[in-house]
C-alpha cells in the first residue's frame, strides 16, 4: 500500500525546537509588551486596551512563526488555527486576570504582563508540539 503524500517536512526536535520557540516567543513578547507600554504610556490609553492591543498583535506574529517552526506534514492552517484559538482564549483570560490583579496591587502593567507571559510560555511549548500544530 502506498504511503500518504506529505510535504516531507518534520518539526524540529529537541534543542533546536526549543531555541526557535524561545526566539519566536522573545519577538512576540517585545511586540506585546512594547505595545502595552506605548498604549498605556505615551498614548495615555487604559491598561485593558494596552493589554489587549499588545496581546492580539503579538498573536499574529506568534502564530505565523510558530506554525512555520512546529507544523508537520500537510495539516491545514484551519485545524492549526482552531486549536491555537482555543489555547489563545485561555491564555488571553489568564493574561487579563494577572495584569488586572498586578495593577490593583500597584505594579506597573509590564510586571504582571511578564509574569503572565512566563506562565503561558511553559504550557504553550508542550501544547504546540503535542496538540496545536499536529
Please characterize this protein's 3D structure.
This protein is an all-alpha fold. It has one domain. Helix content is 76%, strand content 0%. The chain has four helices and no strands. Helix 1 (14-40) packs antiparallel against helix 2. The longest helix is centred in the last third of the chain and has 28 residues, at 77-104. Mean pLDDT is 84; it is low at 1-8.
How is the secondary structure organized here?
Layout: H1 14-40, H2 47-70, H3 77-104, H4 110-132
Helix pairs in contact: 1-2, 1-4, 2-3, 3-4
Q: Number of domains in the coordinates? A: 1
Mean of pLDDT: 84
Q: Which parts are unreliable, with pLDDT below 50 for 5 consecutive residues or more?
A: 1-8
Major sheet description: none
Order of helices and strands: HHHH
Number of beta strands: 0
What is the count of DSSP helices, taking H or I runs of 4+ residues?
4
Q: Which percent band covers the strand fraction?
A: under 5%
- Helix-strand makeup class: mainly alpha
Shape: elongated
Distance between the termini: 24 Å
Tell me the radius of gyration: 17 Å
Helix content: over 70%
Amino acid at each position: 500500500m502506498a504511503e500518504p503524500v506529505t510535504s516531507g517536512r518534520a518539526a524540529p526536535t529537541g534543542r533546536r525546537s526549543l531555541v526557535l520557540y524561545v526566539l519566536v516567543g522573545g519577538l512576540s513578547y517585545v511586540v506585546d509588551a512594547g505595545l502595552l507600554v506605548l498604549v498605556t504610556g505615551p498614548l495615555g490609553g487604559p491598561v485593558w486596551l494596552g493589554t489587549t492591543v499588545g496581546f492580539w498583535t503579538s498573536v499574529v506574529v506568534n502564530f505565523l512563526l510558530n506554525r512555520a517552526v512546529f507544523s508537520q506534514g500537510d495539516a491545514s492552517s484551519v485545524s492549526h488555527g482552531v486549536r491555537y484559538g482555543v489555547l489563545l482564549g485561555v491564555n488571553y483570560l489568564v493574561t487579563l486576570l494577572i495584569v488586572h490583579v498586578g495593577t490593583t496591587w500597584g505594579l506597573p502593567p509590564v510586571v504582571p504582563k511578564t509574569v503572565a507571559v512566563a506562565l503561558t510560555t511553559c504550557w504553550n511549548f508542550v501544547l504546540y508540539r503535542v496538540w496545536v500544530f499536529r
